[in-house]
Design brief:
heterodimer, A: 234 residues, alpha/beta, Rossmann fold, 2 domains, six-stranded mixed β-sheet, three-stranded antiparallel β-sheet, 32% helix, B: 277 residues, mainly alpha, ABC transporter involved in vitamin B12 uptake, BtuC, 12 helices
C-alpha cells in the first residue's frame, strides 16, 4: 500500500470552532484518484479547504506527510477578472513555492507544461479572455508546471458541457497515470468522474455520516445508493 | 512673466520630484487597482498629511524638531497596520473609512492649532507646492529607489497572491507577509511624497495612471511600465500646465492624471466597439 500523503483521524471540520460534520477518517494515498461526492452544503468543500490548510481544523488530527507537495485548482469564480494576467503568467505561477518568487526561473517548466496541454499558442492571451474549457486547460497546465505530487480540484468541470467535462477528466486521468499524481476532485457530475476513481469520499449530512474508502466500497455503500442509486463503475 | 528656461532653474526640483513620485506611485498603482484598494492610498495620504501636521505641532509646542516626513511615515504606517491586520469580521472599506475620517478630523483639529503654518498645511492637503525643498527631493528620490526596487523583487509573489490567493497559500507563499509588504511600500512612498507634493496629487498618482494603463494596454505585465510613464506625464505635465496657465500645481497634476484615465476609458470603449463590429 502506498504511503498516505494526507491522513485525517477523527478530524472535525467547520467554522468558528463549530464542527459541521461528524469526525472524518480518511487517508489520501500517493497515486490515488479520489472523487469527493455530496450535494451542495454537505460540507465537502469545508473538508477540502481544511485538508489544504486554508481552514484550521476544529478538532481531531490532520497529518500531511513531509513529502507532500500540493497544488490546487479553485472554483472558477475565485479568480478575479480585473487582473489581466496572461496564460504564460498563470502557468508560471505553478512553479512558485514558498519564497521562490524572489529569484527568476520556472519559464522552462511552464513552457513544457503548456506544450503538454497543447496551449502554447494561447501563451500571450489574457486568462480572462479564454473560454471555460481553455481556462481549465491552462489551470491543468499550471498543475503540471507545479511538479506537485497531489492536486486538489474543486469542481473543475462545473461550467462545462459533457464533451469538455469528459476531456478535462481524461487529461486529469492521464496526469494521474503518467506522472503518478494523486488527484482529489470534488465533482457533482459523478457519472463522468467515477470511471477514473480509485477511492472516494461521500458526504451525507442528512444521515450525519462521511463514508470513505475504495471507490467500489463507497459507491456501493447503502448511504450512497440511497442518494444516487447504482453507478456504472467501469 | 518668467521664461521657460528660468522657470526650469526655479522649478527643476519640484518637477523631478513630481516625476519620481508619478513613476513609482504609477507602477504601484497597478497593484492598487487590481486589488480593488484604490481608496487605501487616499486614506494613507490623509494619514500622512496628518502626520506632517503633527510634526509641525510638536515642533511649535515642544521645540523638538522632528522632521515632518518622519511623522508622516509614522502615522501612515500606523494606518497601514490597521488596514493590513483588520479583524475578519470587519470589511476593508470600513477600516478605510475609519482611517480617512479619523485622519481628516484630526488634521482639522491639529491644523487649527498651528495657524502659523497655515500655508504649509494647505500645501500638504491640496498639493499647491510650487517649490520643493532639497531635503524633500532627496527623501523622495531615496524612497522611490527603495520602493521600486523592493516592488520589483516581490513582483511575482505579489501578482500570484493578488490573482489567486488561495492557491498561493497552498503553495506556501507568505501571502500575509506579501500583503503587509505591499502596504508598507505604498505607505512609505505615499507618506514621503505627500510631504513634498501634497495629498491630492499623491492620491491621483497612486490610482489613475495604473487604472489608465490597464485600460490602454489590457495586459498586467505591460501595464507597469505604461503606468509609470503616465505617472511621469501627470507629474511633469501637470506642473507645466500650472506654470503656463497659473493653476494650482496639485490640482493641475491630478487633472492631467484624470484626463489620461478618461482617454483610457474612451480608448477601451472604442476598442471594444471595434471588436464587436
Amino acid at each position: 500500500m502506498k504511503p498516505a500523503l494526507i491522513q485525517c483521524r477523527g478530524l472535525l471540520v467547520g467554522y468558528e470552532g463549530r464542527a459541521v460534520l461528524p469526525p472524518i477518517d480518511v487517508d489520501v494515498r500517493a497515486g490515488s484518484f479520489v472523487v469527493v461526492a455530496g450535494r451542495n452544503g454537505s460540507g465537502k468543500s469545508t473538508w477540502f479547504r481544511t485538508a489544504l490548510g486554508l481552514l484550521p481544523p476544529v478538532g481531531g488530527s490532520l497529518v500531511r506527510a513531509d513529502s507532500v507537495r500540493p497544488t490546487y485548482m479553485p472554483q472558477r469564480m475565485r479568480f478575479d477578472d480585473l487582473t489581466p494576467v496572461t496564460v504564460a503568467q498563470v502557468v508560471g505561477m505553478g512553479t512558485l513555492r514558498g519564497w521562490s518568487f524572489l529569484r527568476p526561473g520556472g519559464g522552462a517548466q511552464a513552457a513544457a507544461a503548456m506544450e503538454r496541454l497543447g496551449i502554447t499558442s494561447l501563451a500571450g492571451r489574457t486568462f480572462r479572455s479564454l473560454s471555460e474549457g481553455q481556462k481549465q486547460k491552462v489551470l491543468l497546465a499550471r498543475i503540471v508546471a507545479s511538479g506537485a505530487n497531489i492536486a486538489l480540484l474543486d469542481e473543475p468541470t462545473a461550467a462545462m458541457d459533457h464533451a469538455a467535462e469528459r476531456e478535462t477528466l481524461e487529461v486529469l486521468a492521464s496526469l494521474h497515470r503518467e506522472l503518478g499524481l494523486a488527484v482529489v476532485v470534488v465533482s457533482h457530475h459523478l457519472a463522468a468522474a467515477v470511471p477514473f476513481a480509485t477511492d472516494a469520499i461521500f458526504f451525507d449530512p442528512d444521515a450525519g455520516q462521511v463514508v470513505a474508502g475504495s471507490a467500489r466500497e463507497v459507491f456501493r455503500h447503502p448511504a450512497f445508493l440511497a442518494r444516487h442509486g447504482e453507478l456504472h463503475l467501469g | 512673466m518668467v521664461d521657460l528656461a528660468t522657470a526650469w532653474e526655479l522649478f527643476r526640483d519640484a518637477i523631478v520630484c513630481a516625476v519620481l513620485a508619478g513613476v513609482v506611485l504609477g507602477g504601484l498603482g497597478v497593484h492598487v487597482v487590481v486589488r480593488r484598494m484604490v481608496f487605501a492610498s487616499a486614506a494613507l495620504a490623509e494619514a500622512a498629511a496628518l502626520g506632517v501636521m503633527i510634526g509641525f505641532f510638536v515642533e511649535i509646542y515642544s521645540g523638538l524638531a522632528v522632521p515632518p516626513s518622519l511623522t508622516a511615515i509614522g502615522v501612515a504606517l500606523l494606518a497601514a497596520v490597521g488596514l493590513a491586520w483588520r479583524p475578519e469580521a470587519v470589511s476593508r472599506e470600513v477600516i478605510l473609512a475609519a482611517v480617512w475620517i479619523g485622519s481628516a478630523a484630526l488634521a482639522l483639529v491639529v491644523g487649527a492649532s498651528i495657524t502659523q503654518e497655515a500655508h504649509d498645511v494647505a500645501e500638504i492637503l491640496l498639493g499647491s507646492a510650487v517649490l520643493v525643498r532639497p531635503e524633500d527631493l532627496w527623501r523622495v528620490a531615496g524612497s522611490s529607489v527603495f520602493v521600486a526596487g523592493a516592488a520589483a523583487v516581490l513582483h511575482r509573489g505579489l501578482v500570484f497572491a493578488g490573482f489567486d490567493e488561495e492557491t498561493a497559500r497552498v503553495h506556501g507563499l507568505p501571502v500575509r507577509a506579501l500583503e503587509v509588504a505591499l502596504w508598507a511600500l505604498i505607505t512609505i512612498q505615499v507618506a514621503t511624497c505627500t510631504r513634498a507634493l501634497g495629498a491630492l496629487p499623491v492620491f491621483a498618482f497612486s490610482v489613475l495612471p495604473g487604472a489608465a494603463a490597464l485600460l490602454w494596454v489590457g495586459r498586467l505585465q505591460a501595464a507597469f511600465p505604461v503606468a509609470a510613464a503616465l505617472g511621469a506625464v501627470s507629474g511633469a505635465g501637470g506642473f507645466l500646465l500650472a506654470f503656463v496657465f497659473d493653476l494650482p500645481v496639485g490640482a493641475s497634476q491630478a487633472g492631467v492624471a484624470t484626463a489620461l484615465f478618461a482617454c483610457g476609458m474612451l480608448w477601451s470603449r472604442a476598442r471594444s466597439s471595434a471588436l464587436l463590429r
